[in-house]
Amino acid sequence: MKIAASTVLVNALAVQAVRIVQSNDDGWAELNIRALNDALIAGGHQVLLSGPAEDKSGSSSRDEQPENRDKPCEYNSCPANSPPYGHNSTREDLNWVNSYPVTSIRYGINMFAPKLWNGAAPELAVTGPNVGTNLFLSVPFSGTVGAACYASHDAGIPAIAFSGADDGRHAWNEAPRKSSSVYAQLATNLTSVVIASGKPYLPKDVFLNVNFPKVSDECSDASKYKFVLSRINPGIFSPKDVNWCGTDRLPTEDSVYKTKGCYVPVSIGDATDKTTINDGRQQEVLDKLKSILSCLPK
């Protein structure tokens, strides 16, 4: 039986608080990542944001040492001639790195987290919500996905990459936008279900690739959305998928996204190559997410 998103949000209050490292490829001061940061903190979690100093969309898994800046960070969120990395003047949990998303989350995991949490490591990595979807062919090029894969594969931290239909890039200090608020609530809901499922939150080398459709009159708040288990790439030549919704082939995330209604594809990604996991780990993920999953209409 599917649990409504609003119910999950209420239940999230009872979820054990965890340490979360957060990044994206649109920049540390973009509105989507800050809205999710606020929502996760409101849920009781300890959250460390470590994102690029500016928009680094499409940077995939590039990882280069940060350098000094000549210009201000995006939206004037850090001054010109700043050092290679820094943090908000009043909040050491909000960090920027003058490099790529993978570099940013690497610094968050290895440098900023031990300092902020007295040597403790992040327990979960959350990237995005990306400005614009990351579906199928675009997945390998996404810096938001790249950061999640680094966390999962290289750092051994369970990771979820969130993306949402493009509503334009906006600064952290702009008036709240409906899309950012809905995406933040949905991402918090799914994150809460993963945490409530217990450790290990996800199987080894698995990341979740989650894409939110456009917020519209039909899809106006989080309670209207339905999560659907999906594949990143078609499975024409792949082994059978986990048996779910009366079939042994999961729908592609692209087909779920294009289905009329408020459907959110949740793909079981392989952090080693950014394609679909196609082994027993599918069942493990299904068992963890089953309470929030729906089937597509016939």
From TrEMBL:
Pfam families documented for this protein: SurE
Chain ranges of the Survival protein SurE-like phosphatase/nucleotidase domain: 20-218
Keywords: Hydrolase, Metal-binding, Signal
Comp. bias intervals (Basic and acidic residues): 53-73
Source organism superkingdom: Eukaryota
Segments for region (Disordered): 51-88
Protein family per UniProt: Belongs to the SurE nucleotidase family.
Protein name: Survival protein SurE-like phosphatase/nucleotidase domain-containing protein
Biological classification of the source: Eukaryota, Fungi, Dikarya, Ascomycota, Pezizomycotina
